[in-house]
Amino acid sequence: MTAAEESPLLRVTDLTTHFRTDRGLMRAVDGVSFTLERGRTLGVVGESGSGKTVLSRSVMGLLPRGDVVRGGTVQYAGEDISALDEDGLRRLWGREIAMVFQDPMTSLNPVVRIGRQITEHLRLHTGASRADARAKAAALLKSVGIPEPERRLREYPHQLSGGMRQRVMIAVALATGPRLLLADEPTTALDVTVQAQILDLLRAQQRQRDMAMILVTHDLGVVAGRTDEVAVMYAGRVVERAPTRTLFTNMRMPYTEALVRSIPRIADPGHTRLAAIPGRPPDMTRPPAGCRFAPRCAYARDKCRAEQPPLRESGEPGHTFACWYPVGTPEGAAALERNRKEAS
Amino acid sequence: MLRLALKKLAILVPVALAVSVLTFLLMNLLPGDPAYTILGSRATPQSVAELTARLHLDEPVWTRYSSWLGGVLTGDLGQSYLNYQPASSLIGHALPVTLELLVLSQVIALALAVPLGVYSARHPRGWVDRIASTVSFGTLAMPPYMLGVLLVSVFSVGLKALPATGFTPFGDDPGLNLRSMVLPSLTLALGSLAVYVRLLRTEMISTLQQDFVTVARAKGLPGRAVLWRHTVRPSMFSLVTAVGINLGSLIGGAFVVEYIFALPGVGALTLNSIFQRDYLVVQACVLVVAVGYVLVNLLVDLLYPIIDPRVRHV
Q1: What is the count of residue pairs from A and B with beta carbons less than 8 Å apart?
Q2: Model confidence band, residue B314 (pLDDT cutoffs 50, 70, 90)
Q3: CA-based nearest distance A308→chain B, Å
Q4: Residue B213 and residue A277: Cα distance in Å, rounded?
Q5: Looking at the complex, does the CB of residue B212 fall below 8 Å from at least one CB of chain A?
Q6: In this prediction, does ipTM exceed 0.95?
Q7: pLDDT tens, A41-71?
């Protein structure tokens, strides 16, 4: 076994992505570390503005030019790719690492036929002939559930519905057989009825191809049952990370708990108020000094507002979290109780 | 596609009719008449009256219009009062000059505007962008007669590199012909350049924000494919529209440039005929310009579905 095969597919260490803005340095991603093994799936969950989209782009190195300050390392199959320039990254983009974007309505070039959009990088990366690439594209469209693939190849994006277009985008991403797929809110812009189909399609393709996947979403319901592990992001940091089942049964971080509570439940009686999280994520040009969730947290004490909690082990395998007064512990319960008393 | 073309072509009839009626009436309102121009200042009232009768100028406007229209419908555009040449042959000589001027000017304008617009959009507020926008706004603000004279003083008088005026037909000597067309084409081109650069730059900057450009990068495509196929091509719509409008208006609007550089084009022919009250030649020129305008617009309309597939299915 070579070193490249021993090392995990993706190892992200202390990754930071800061943007220079008029209001100062915006800490979109602020020290994120994780590893992802081959063929495994990781869900990244957080509110809008938590930095999850920037995280997925940073992993790929797909950031706008200029005005970006990057730190930390991204190792892909043992190779540090965070130091590569765009020419170096282009070797990996589309071939090893592919991405499915949030909005299928704007992800396809309106003036280029579907067929060309699937085959252009396929031919570039594999050197396939025009006819071979076309046959492969038709097979791909069929495998993502598009009927009459030959006809669709000749069509333009505007002739397809949103769900169809996202299927096309998945076909585009899968065309070159990547080993890592980054799916950035792949169903947010779609009808609810189509969402589940697309997610199941992604899961099925991921398993069939033994491809690793990072599924970025704001919806905990999306990752449940579809990912091996979940990382919860808040204000540019991972605040809790666990195998998916552990996270739902044994969450430690109050933010995770708040996210879970904000999922509407069919079992609830009618007119139950949704437990929304009060307030908004902090301005990331001026993040709070202590725990970044403290201003919105029901458990928060003075220590939370002064000191940033480090990520620590919960004792269960693969479960880490960052909190001084964790959910489901005596300290957490006491903090909640004292806060309630002080408020009344 | 064919139905669209036929529908657009059908517009030609009312446009041509309206334009010709208006021109006839306007020319009629002008003081002076061709009889005086032809006979000169020492003409006797009797000879003027004779000539007026011979040219049918004593008849009422509507009679003259309907007989002119009858001629046009049978393919006769009338003839010059002054040298009895048929208007169609006068235009036949002038039109190629104007068309060459138009095509050359737009080729120069686009050859400069596309690289400038693309570069400016990729590096907004960079030095190329700043210089291009300053210079192009300067040329936009400058009227063509000034710009033309300025170019003449630099390239003809100063550098003695190009002829200031005069025209050699392409058939006689292509080299000389092109040399004589450089300055007039450049004068027209610089007038269009500013608009073209700005339009392409603005549309490209908004295209660059589009997800599909990021998708193209994420596919690992080389920079030039991302740029041309996925950025420039979807950013051509307003530029094509502007070129179309410009071509249409330049068919009859290159008057000043033709005049400055003494090019025997449609603009110069129209102007001279107006000065000499050569009614029927003016009439023929205006008709040709109007038809040309409609045809250019038709061409642009037919071009849209080619560059933007979304238009095809509306």
Answers
A1: 76
A2: low
A3: 35
A4: 35
A5: yes
A6: no
A7: 999 999 888 899 999 999 999 987 778 999 9
CB distance B190 to B147 below 8 Å: yes
Whether residue B123 lies within 8 A of chain A, CB to CB, comes out as no
A76 lies in the same domain as A7? yes
Interface test with B, best of A63, A96, A107 (most B CBs within 10 A): A107
What would the mean pLDDT of B112-133 be, rounded to a whole number? Answer: 90
In the prediction, which pLDDT does A189 show?
A: 82
Same domain flag for A260 and A206? no
CA B231 → CA A88, A159, A250, B74, B236, distances in Å? 22, 21, 48, 51, 9
CATH number of B94-276: 1.10.3720.10
Specify whether A15 is located in the same domain as A145. Answer: yes
Domain count, chain A: 2
Sequence ranges of the domains in chain B? 94-276
List the single best residue of B205, B209, B212 to mutate versus A (max A Cβ within 10 A): B212
- Across the interface, whether the CB atoms of A156 and B230 are under 8 A apart is answered no
Give the total residue count for chain A.
Answer: 344
User: How many Cβ atoms from other residues are within 10 Å of residue B71's Cβ?
Assistant: 15
Structural domain boundaries, residue A32: 3-227
Residues B309, A156: C-beta atoms closer than 8 Å = yes
Cα nearest neighbour of A175 on chain B? B219
Q: Write the CA distances from B161 to B170, B179, B182, B183, B257, integer angstroms.
A: 19, 9, 11, 10, 19
Buried b / exposed e across A228-266, counting CB within 10 Å, b at 16+? bbbbbbbbbbbbbbbbbebbbebbbbbbbbbbbeeeeee
- Say if the Cβ atoms of A124 and B220 lie within 8 Å: yes
pLDDT at residue B13 greater than cutoff 90 = no
pLDDT-based confidence at residue B41 (cuts at 50, 70, 90): confident
Same domain, A172 and A260: no
Which residues of chain B make contact with A100, given a CB cutoff of 8 A? none
Question: What is the mean pLDDT of the segment spanning A302-330?
Answer: 94
Identify whether A128 is part of a domain: yes
pLDDT at B88 over 90: no
Q: A92 to chain B: which residues are within 8 Å by CB?
A: 220
| Same domain membership, residue A187 and residue A47 | yes
Interface list for A 146-185 with B (CB within 8 A): 156, 158-159, 169, 172
